[in-house]
Structure formats: C-alpha cells, structure tokens
C-alpha cells in the first residue's frame, strides 16, 4: 500500500470516527458519570469491538448481512434493543447521586462491565459492519485478503477511534467539572444521554 493510499484511508477513518455514534456517546456518558479514567475501559472495549467488526466484515459475514434481510434484521433488532436498554438505564440512574455522594460512594459498575458495554455497543451495530464491508474492499486486494494490510487498516481505524474518544471524553470531563456540578444539572445531563441512546436505537430500526 502506498503512503498516499494510506493517508486517504486515514482521512476516511477520521471522518467516520469523529462522527458521533453509539460508541462515542457511551464514552461521553461514562466520562460524565464516572470520570475520564473509567471511560478508558469503555473505549478499550469499543476498540476491541471495532477489530471484531472489521474481521467479521472481511471474512464474509458482512456480505451475508448485506445480502440477507433476515440476518441484517436480527442484528439490527439486537443492536437497537441494547441501545434502548442503555437509554432507559441512563434515564433511571440520572440524578440518583449528588456530586458529593458520587465522590464518596464506590462506583456501582465494575471496570469489566464498562469494558463489556463498550464492546457490545461496537459489535451490535450493523451499520459498522456494512461500513467495513463497503470501505475495506477499496483498500484491499480484490483477489485475496492480505493479512498485513488488513492489520494496518484495522489498527489505523482503531487508532482513529481511540483518538476521537479521547477528544470527546476530554470535553465531557471539562463539562463535568464546570457545568454539571449541581444535582439538577447532573440529572438533566443523565436524562439527556438516555434520550439520545433511545433515539439512536429507534433510528437504527429504520436502517435498511
């Protein structure tokens, strides 16, 4: 792969990674609720999910989802249900703790559960699989899968994803320090996150 081709892929990856989606919203929500350090586990899970999705796309399952209405529909329902579940959870948990209580009490969610949530958000999004199915063939040999090129492209996209999460988490941490100090603002931010998750789940149901 030439350097110019790789730079083109980087530009495509950056646009896709910085476009707000479920993974970005998960990182923002985690940073707002539990701090930037906890958001690292969500982002790490999302990065692993991106690698799984990319592998799935190039091994043929992506083409199956593109060709099979039933397979795509089942994955779409699973992804939408999980996003709506996250939205309801965020709405219910909004404002349960004041800022002082949040600093004194241990975080209910474990690091593993946060990592798992980021992973599930990534692998349950059929749009991500179709993205890789459409983009990877433009940068891969048509007659066979080049393992080194696949690893380079996947690592590049994963790095762009982590960069976007770092940017959004930094913004969310700043907002947490300067905007959501009061319990009412924390409650409003949490419920707003819940509404966005539910909206994303509903929007995913319309994808064909």
Automatic annotation (TrEMBL):
Membrane topology listed for this record: Multi-pass membrane protein
GO molecular function, one term: amino acid transmembrane transporter activity
Alphabetized InterPro entries for the sequence: LeuE-type (IPR001123)
Pfam families for the chain: LysE
Principal cellular location given in the protein's record: membrane
Domain of life, source organism: Bacteria
UniProt entry keywords in alphabetical sequence: Cell membrane, Membrane, Transmembrane, Transmembrane helix
Signal peptide per UniProt: none
Regions that span the bilayer: 43-65, 70-88, 115-136, 148-168, 188-207
Keyword presence, Transmembrane: yes
Intracellular or extracellular location(s): Cell membrane
GO cellular component terms given for this protein: plasma membrane
Matches recorded under PANTHER family: ARGININE EXPORTER PROTEIN ARGO, ARGININE EXPORTER PROTEIN ARGO-RELATED
Protein name (Swiss-Prot/TrEMBL): LysE family transporter
Organism this protein belongs to: Duganella lactea
């Amino acid at each position: 792969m030439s350097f110019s081709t790789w730079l083109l892929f980087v530009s495509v990856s950056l646009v896709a990674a910085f476009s707000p989606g479920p993974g970005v919203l998960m990182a923002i929500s985690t940073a707002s609720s539990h701090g930037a350090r906890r958001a690292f586990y969500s982002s790490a899970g999302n990065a692993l999910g991106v690698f799984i999705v990319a592998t799935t796309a190039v091994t043929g399952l992506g083409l199956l989802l593109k060709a099979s209405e039933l397979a795509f529909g089942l994955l779409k329902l699973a992804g939408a249900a999980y996003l709506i579940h996250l939205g309801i959870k965020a709405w219910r948990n909004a404002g349960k703790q004041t800022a002082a209580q949040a600093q004194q009490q241990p975080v209910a969610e474990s690091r593993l559960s946060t990592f798992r949530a980021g992973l599930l958000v990534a692998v349950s999004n059929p749009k991500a699989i179709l993205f890789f199915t459409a983009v990877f063939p433009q940068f891969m040999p048509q007659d066979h899968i080049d393992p080194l090129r696949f690893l380079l492209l996947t690592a590049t996209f994963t790095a762009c994803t982590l960069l976007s999460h770092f940017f959004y988490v930094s913004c969310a941490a700043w907002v947490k320090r300067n905007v959501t100090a009061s319990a009412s603002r924390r409650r409003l931010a949490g419920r707003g996150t819940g509404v966005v998750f539910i909206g994303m789940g509903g929007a995913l149901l319309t994808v064909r």
